[in-house]
Amino acid sequence: MGIVFAILLFGFLVFFHELGHFLCARINKIEVSSFSIGMGPTILSKTKKGTKYCLKLLPLGGSCVMGEDEEATGKPGNFHSKSVWARIMVIAGGPIFNFILAFVMAIVLVAMSGFDAPVISAAEDGYPAAKAGLQAGDEIIKIGNDRIHFFREISFYNQTHQGEEVRIIYKRDGVTYSATLKPQMDEEAGYYRLGIISSGVTKANFGQSIVYGWHEVGYTIKTTITSLRMLITGKFGLSELTGPVGIVQMANQTYEASKDYAEQTWEENEDEGQEGAETSGSWAMRLFVAKTVFIEFLYLAVLLSANLGVMNLLPIPALDGGRLVFLLVEAVTRKKIPPEKEGIVHLIGFVLLIGLMVVVMFQDIRKLFV
Fold first, then answer.
1. Widest Cα–Cα separation across the chain
2. Measured CA distances, 360 to 7, 200, 224, 243, 356 (Å)
3. Domains in the chain: ranges and CATH
4. Which of 70-79, 287-296, 303-312, 322-331 has the least mean pLDDT?
5. CA–CA separation, 51 and 122 (whole Å)
6. Is 18 an annotated catalytic residue?
7. Which of 18, 31, 153, 296 is catalytic?
8. Cβ contacts of residue 188 below 8 Å, gap of 6+?
């Protein structure tokens, strides 16, 4: 069941990306020859106003095919006949829609699950935070050069700056303080720690859901960019990359883990005689499990949607970001790059991307059996 949910989720995110291209093309009166939901053989199709709408067999995304025939350049509905800013809008529409979707889902996520405020519940004895005078109730607002909104941002910073001295800024009773901490090795855990413990999850009201939903997307984008930078600098290897097979496997693991956690939590509450706990086969228990699984999948959906937006904006030929580079050059120089030359560059980029995808897919499949 988890694999089915994962495939549907991944397909929906890709479909929404293509929907962004489609709607922006419509706004700019660019011909769309076909718009498809899914991939593979066509199950149903209908042509309306020159666009063939298709429902395909495999629920793995979608496609938006616009009129980009070079020989038709000059015709009103051709992509290349439109202004450079209209074309930029169409190409950027896909990634932007991924960010919008991530934001909407993040609002729902925070409303349902709350957020991990960067407030300390305790500073562990013998570790740098306690030695610097930090204590329970302190709110960390900045670490290094990064503004902090979630406690997990502190953990992420520490993970990506292991052993490095860091300056933090925090508030206590409305007064701002600063401290410089040198992470200390935890021999048992095998990594450097600051020695601070989270105060847990804070429930969010409507306004906070919007604000922290925005911060949730921002945090996801930041971690994605940081990970890419570490990949380029060699701190991460190609083995760290994950493709569609790995994403489906990760989503399936998320489903199984959240389901088991929810069932175990319910049973523990039942054993402790807490109010509202009933037999494991009750509807209340099933709803609790479904809610827990939904929240975890929602978190994963926010992560994947924002990642899809970022990855498509990378200035790599064949991706939206690569096409935007050509369009921005045209906007600055006011000289249109011949479509055939641009097409050759994108073709080379496409071949290289396919090669990378094959390598990543091989790694993902190998991991399934290791």
1. 74
2. 18, 36, 17, 6, 6
3. 120-200 (2.30.42.10)
4. 70-79
5. 61
6. yes
7. 18
8. none
